Amino acid sequence: MGAEAYLNGILPRSDLALDIGSAWLKGRETLENYHKFLEKETKEFIELQKNLDLNYIFDGQLFWDDFLRTIAASLQLHEEGSNADENAVTRQIYTNTFYRKPSIFKKIENKNNEPLIKDNSLDSIPNGKRKVILPSPFALAYLSNGIHKNEDGTIKDDSFIEVLFDIAQVLNNEIKRLRKEKSVSFVQFNEPCMCYAEETKIFFHDIAKSLQIATENVKIITSLHLYNGDASKFLPDIAKYPVDRMGVDAYNTDLNKFSSVEFDKFLELGVVNSKNSLIEEPEALAKYAKQAIEKINPKGIALVPNRPLELVPQEIAKKKIESLAKAKELLN
Amino acid sequence: MNLPLFPTQEIGSLQKPAWRVNGLKGTATDKDINNLNQWYNKIGLQSRIGNAIKLINNIQNEKVGNEKLKELKQKLKEESQIFGLKLLETAGLDIIYDGEQTRVEMYEDPISDIDGFEFKGIVRAFDVMKYRKASCIAEPAFRLPYHKEEFLFLKDKTEHELKIPITGAYTLAEWSYNEFYGKRRLENASLFELFGSEKLDRKEMALALAKNVIRPNIKALVDKGARWVQIDEPAATTYPNEVDLVVETFNESVKGLNVKASIHMCFSDYRVFFPDVLEMKNCYQYAWEFANNDTHNLGIDKNARNGYKVLDLFKEYGVKGNIGLGVLDIHSNFIESPEIVRDRILYAAKVLGPERIFVNPDCGLRTRTLDVAFAKLKNMVAGAELARKSCK
Description:
heterodimer, A: alpha/beta, seven-stranded parallel sheet, 11 strands, about 35% helix, B: alpha/beta, three-stranded mixed sheet, 13 helices, about 45% helix
């Protein structure tokens, strides 16, 4: 069995991009110039992925201020009189990053079917390799305030499920649009909450259904990337989730447990550690892939980062991506 | 020191004034000097205006030699310490420091003075907020007491109680990459040995920082007369299953030291901190952020004060120690009215009793302009006074 390699979440902005962003915040730079710079870096990341022959390519999500924001802003998930950029700043568990907590105070819908994400850079990615990354319906519902939560922040069961499915429906419309208008081949749902949220076990089957809703009636490769905790605790049922591929964080997941169940999916092995500046040796990554193939026997295997690479400086991220690509070469 | 009911306190950093930032670079403008004049008049530092401007001008003088330049820059930093101290005094706070005017920021500054770390580059925290991040490349070791000079300079400059913020061991570890312990453990590891390795590595680094670096630093401050240190642990609830390590590093950091030690945490899911919080030894105060999640409505019922729900857990678990109640949202220019502040305090007093409540911003106000920060702080002080009157 050969191996694939690709990326799976927000990539880091360069030091200069961060400086320009900071200057914009202080009124010393225009938003237009800041965005032009991010567009330039987006192109560079797409070229890097092309040059390294990664199997699927995404735009790097450099415009995403957090992994929910673009969707939260498009769906107007904020309190009246504010905007998504003013929602409460909340620490993202497992990292020193923050997100703005979306507010869901009415039924989630996208009446006019407006695009939810910026998609102009997809055209520069070869057909058949275009990948889009979205938050999972559960992550968006779980990390939001609103009608589906009680005063103390706990979940109201019925309305939570309704919100979960509504999110799934609007994501499904967006995925259909991206498939039809932009020939996107691959959609990945980032799922940073399931592994640590105590409520996961209550909504386990509803989460599965939400993924089914989000991907139904669209011919596209689907993936769920589980990070921020141990995905093995959901075995064997998680192996039956309605996605083609499943990503795991090898540093936080007991992969031994995967070897004792039937795992009839493509395994996305998160072995490039986005929380450490150590550059993984391609040989070590290739070794990990071989060990996974031998013991877990998945339908296929892809080497990926364990979490989005935004957690390391851009230069280090690039080295890690190169290492990933070299490991793929060693395996094929 | 006698403190009133609902003592008011700062929690961390203030923005550095432009005359200080540009002054150190030798690029201060007329606008910066005008701003200095305005602020110094506002906070009763008129007698220091001449000296401050002279310092800025001397730094700009190209003929100054390197040694003299270094000395002038140090003096300008000290000037901004006095400015920070006086700004907080003028706002009316009871417990103060200098707005961390000599520190770059809460991570980069201490890490620069600890052996065993190397900076790797800049990463984003959120939106366009960023910080320089280092990696642990050898066992962390004490190099120097990095807050001692700052404290010595301040200690006789005010009659107010001083609370010295110091970044905690756990946060320093969590915010750093971990090449040293990571490399050692992963050499020749199989795929199946990666599981759990990060946590073990982080534990080794955090405990080494607590014992080798933070405790000697606090001791150096105590030896010079410090009475209260605030251990800043914004990373405390990063991993819900690792809060025990935060507690362990806190206890290790203050072990055997005769000092009032408190902990500040922010922007976290505080629920995960219970029940481990009960294992903290002699924690004088838990200063947490609340206003960030609260409404702007007046009232002391649960609906109006939905940002303060976690206070119930303190009661439920019987946690001893005082509460540093965040009543100002530091991510917004919204100026909280004294009445909102009052109601936030009264709600907390209703849940936990008034004697345990200290009043502060959610976190350091460095993300706000000095004008906004000052207006917020003044209203915080006025709100505490209103709350006192309500309790009479």
